[in-house]
Specification:
mainly alpha
Length: 198
Protein backbone atom coordinates (compact mmCIF):
# COMPACT_ATOMS: atom_id res chain seq x y z
CA UNK A 1 0.00 0.00 0.00
CA UNK A 2 2.84 2.39 0.83
CA UNK A 3 4.40 1.72 -2.56
CA UNK A 4 1.10 2.46 -4.27
CA UNK A 5 0.68 5.65 -2.24
CA UNK A 6 4.22 6.70 -3.09
CA UNK A 7 3.68 6.13 -6.81
CA UNK A 8 0.36 7.96 -6.72
CA UNK A 9 1.95 10.92 -4.94
CA UNK A 10 4.80 11.02 -7.46
CA UNK A 11 2.29 10.92 -10.33
CA UNK A 12 0.16 13.65 -8.73
CA UNK A 13 3.24 15.80 -8.13
CA UNK A 14 4.28 15.39 -11.77
CA UNK A 15 0.81 16.42 -12.98
CA UNK A 16 0.87 19.50 -10.77
CA UNK A 17 4.35 20.43 -12.01
CA UNK A 18 3.25 20.01 -15.63
CA UNK A 19 0.16 22.13 -14.99
CA UNK A 20 2.21 24.91 -13.34
CA UNK A 21 4.77 24.76 -16.15
CA UNK A 22 2.01 24.98 -18.75
CA UNK A 23 0.41 28.00 -17.05
CA UNK A 24 3.76 29.76 -16.84
CA UNK A 25 4.43 28.98 -20.50
CA UNK A 26 1.04 30.40 -21.53
CA UNK A 27 1.61 33.58 -19.54
CA UNK A 28 5.06 34.11 -21.06
CA UNK A 29 3.61 33.50 -24.56
CA UNK A 30 1.05 36.31 -24.20
CA UNK A 31 3.33 38.96 -25.78
CA UNK A 32 3.47 36.62 -28.85
CA UNK A 33 7.05 37.64 -29.67
CA UNK A 34 8.19 35.60 -26.67
CA UNK A 35 6.64 32.30 -27.85
CA UNK A 36 9.99 30.82 -28.93
CA UNK A 37 11.93 31.78 -25.74
CA UNK A 38 9.02 30.56 -23.59
CA UNK A 39 8.81 27.24 -25.43
CA UNK A 40 12.56 26.63 -25.25
CA UNK A 41 12.42 27.39 -21.51
CA UNK A 42 9.58 24.90 -21.06
CA UNK A 43 11.62 22.22 -22.84
CA UNK A 44 14.61 23.20 -20.70
CA UNK A 45 12.69 22.57 -17.48
CA UNK A 46 11.54 19.19 -18.81
CA UNK A 47 15.14 18.40 -19.78
CA UNK A 48 16.22 18.93 -16.18
CA UNK A 49 13.44 16.64 -14.96
CA UNK A 50 14.35 13.98 -17.51
CA UNK A 51 18.04 14.09 -16.57
CA UNK A 52 17.21 13.99 -12.86
CA UNK A 53 18.81 17.36 -12.19
CA UNK A 54 17.79 19.36 -9.15
CA UNK A 55 15.61 22.38 -9.86
CA UNK A 56 14.78 25.36 -7.68
CA UNK A 57 11.09 25.03 -8.41
CA UNK A 58 9.28 25.30 -11.72
CA UNK A 59 8.95 29.09 -11.71
CA UNK A 60 12.52 29.95 -10.79
CA UNK A 61 14.04 27.38 -13.18
CA UNK A 62 11.78 28.48 -16.03
CA UNK A 63 12.58 32.17 -15.58
CA UNK A 64 16.34 31.53 -15.36
CA UNK A 65 16.22 29.50 -18.58
CA UNK A 66 14.04 32.15 -20.23
CA UNK A 67 16.65 34.81 -19.52
CA UNK A 68 19.52 32.58 -20.71
CA UNK A 69 17.97 31.54 -24.01
CA UNK A 70 16.05 34.70 -24.90
CA UNK A 71 18.39 36.27 -27.46
CA UNK A 72 19.14 33.12 -29.44
CA UNK A 73 15.58 31.79 -29.46
CA UNK A 74 14.09 35.20 -30.25
CA UNK A 75 16.47 35.64 -33.19
CA UNK A 76 15.57 32.20 -34.50
CA UNK A 77 11.87 32.97 -34.09
CA UNK A 78 12.19 35.99 -36.40
CA UNK A 79 13.78 33.83 -39.09
CA UNK A 80 11.30 30.98 -38.61
CA UNK A 81 8.19 33.17 -38.64
CA UNK A 82 9.48 34.86 -41.80
CA UNK A 83 9.97 31.52 -43.55
CA UNK A 84 6.55 30.31 -42.41
CA UNK A 85 4.97 33.55 -43.62
CA UNK A 86 6.50 33.15 -47.10
CA UNK A 87 5.19 29.58 -47.32
CA UNK A 88 1.74 30.81 -46.29
CA UNK A 89 1.83 33.61 -48.88
CA UNK A 90 2.81 31.11 -51.57
CA UNK A 91 -0.28 29.05 -50.76
CA UNK A 92 -2.43 32.18 -50.91
CA UNK A 93 -0.96 33.28 -54.24
CA UNK A 94 -1.33 29.87 -55.85
CA UNK A 95 -4.84 29.67 -57.29
CA UNK A 96 -5.29 26.01 -58.08
CA UNK A 97 -7.09 25.59 -61.43
CA UNK A 98 -6.59 21.86 -61.95
CA UNK A 99 -3.77 22.17 -64.47
CA UNK A 100 -0.70 19.94 -64.31
CA UNK A 101 1.61 22.88 -63.57
CA UNK A 102 -0.52 24.02 -60.65
CA UNK A 103 -0.71 20.45 -59.37
CA UNK A 104 3.10 20.21 -59.44
CA UNK A 105 3.47 23.58 -57.69
CA UNK A 106 0.94 22.56 -55.05
CA UNK A 107 2.80 19.30 -54.47
CA UNK A 108 6.10 21.15 -54.07
CA UNK A 109 4.53 23.58 -51.59
CA UNK A 110 3.01 20.72 -49.59
CA UNK A 111 6.36 18.93 -49.42
CA UNK A 112 8.09 22.18 -48.44
CA UNK A 113 5.51 22.74 -45.70
CA UNK A 114 5.97 19.19 -44.40
CA UNK A 115 9.75 19.66 -44.36
CA UNK A 116 9.33 22.97 -42.53
CA UNK A 117 7.08 21.39 -39.90
CA UNK A 118 9.45 18.42 -39.56
CA UNK A 119 12.39 20.70 -38.81
CA UNK A 120 10.30 22.72 -36.37
CA UNK A 121 9.52 19.76 -34.10
CA UNK A 122 13.25 19.32 -33.44
CA UNK A 123 14.15 22.99 -32.92
CA UNK A 124 13.00 23.29 -29.31
CA UNK A 125 14.41 19.99 -27.98
CA UNK A 126 17.77 20.76 -29.61
CA UNK A 127 17.90 24.33 -28.26
CA UNK A 128 17.00 23.06 -24.80
CA UNK A 129 19.51 20.19 -24.84
CA UNK A 130 22.57 21.54 -26.66
CA UNK A 131 24.55 24.71 -26.10
CA UNK A 132 25.04 25.75 -29.72
CA UNK A 133 24.31 28.60 -32.12
CA UNK A 134 21.14 28.96 -34.19
CA UNK A 135 22.85 27.80 -37.40
CA UNK A 136 23.79 24.49 -35.80
CA UNK A 137 20.30 24.19 -34.33
CA UNK A 138 18.81 24.32 -37.84
CA UNK A 139 21.55 22.12 -39.30
CA UNK A 140 21.09 19.46 -36.62
CA UNK A 141 17.31 19.59 -37.01
CA UNK A 142 17.60 18.98 -40.76
CA UNK A 143 20.00 16.10 -40.10
CA UNK A 144 17.57 14.45 -37.68
CA UNK A 145 14.67 14.87 -40.12
CA UNK A 146 16.59 13.10 -42.89
CA UNK A 147 18.07 10.36 -40.67
CA UNK A 148 15.00 9.53 -38.57
CA UNK A 149 11.87 9.98 -40.73
CA UNK A 150 9.68 7.61 -38.67
CA UNK A 151 10.57 9.35 -35.43
CA UNK A 152 9.89 12.69 -37.10
CA UNK A 153 6.43 11.50 -38.15
CA UNK A 154 5.76 10.39 -34.55
CA UNK A 155 6.73 13.82 -33.18
CA UNK A 156 4.52 15.56 -35.75
CA UNK A 157 1.62 13.27 -34.87
CA UNK A 158 2.02 14.05 -31.14
CA UNK A 159 1.91 17.78 -31.89
CA UNK A 160 -1.08 17.57 -34.24
CA UNK A 161 -3.07 15.32 -31.90
CA UNK A 162 -2.52 17.86 -29.12
CA UNK A 163 -3.63 20.72 -31.38
CA UNK A 164 -6.71 18.75 -32.41
CA UNK A 165 -7.62 18.04 -28.77
CA UNK A 166 -7.29 21.73 -27.96
CA UNK A 167 -9.50 22.47 -30.97
CA UNK A 168 -12.13 20.02 -29.67
CA UNK A 169 -11.91 21.27 -26.08
CA UNK A 170 -10.07 24.61 -25.65
CA UNK A 171 -9.64 24.00 -21.90
CA UNK A 172 -6.98 21.43 -22.80
CA UNK A 173 -4.69 24.37 -23.58
CA UNK A 174 -4.03 24.67 -19.84
CA UNK A 175 -2.22 21.31 -19.69
CA UNK A 176 -1.48 19.92 -23.16
CA UNK A 177 1.37 22.32 -24.00
CA UNK A 178 3.65 20.96 -21.29
CA UNK A 179 2.42 17.37 -21.73
CA UNK A 180 3.20 17.51 -25.45
CA UNK A 181 6.63 18.97 -24.72
CA UNK A 182 7.21 16.28 -22.09
CA UNK A 183 6.52 13.40 -24.49
CA UNK A 184 8.37 15.06 -27.37
CA UNK A 185 11.46 15.83 -25.33
CA UNK A 186 11.51 12.38 -23.70
CA UNK A 187 11.62 10.82 -27.18
CA UNK A 188 14.30 13.25 -28.37
CA UNK A 189 16.36 12.78 -25.20
CA UNK A 190 16.65 9.04 -25.87
CA UNK A 191 17.63 9.86 -29.43
CA UNK A 192 20.30 12.32 -28.30
CA UNK A 193 21.76 9.76 -25.88
CA UNK A 194 21.86 7.16 -28.65
CA UNK A 195 23.65 9.58 -30.99
CA UNK A 196 26.28 10.37 -28.34
CA UNK A 197 27.03 6.67 -27.84
CA UNK A 198 27.59 6.13 -31.58
Amino acid sequence: MNILNSRFLQFAEKIVDLFLLNILWLIMCIPVITIFPATVSMYGVIRKWTMGKETNGVFRTFLLLFRECFLQSFGLSVLWVTLGFFIYIDFRILHFDGSLMHLILLGILCLLSLFFISITVYLFPIMAHFDTNWKNVIKNSITLVTRYPLLTILLIMISFISLYLVYLLPLFIFILGSVTAYFSYTICHKLFLGIKKN
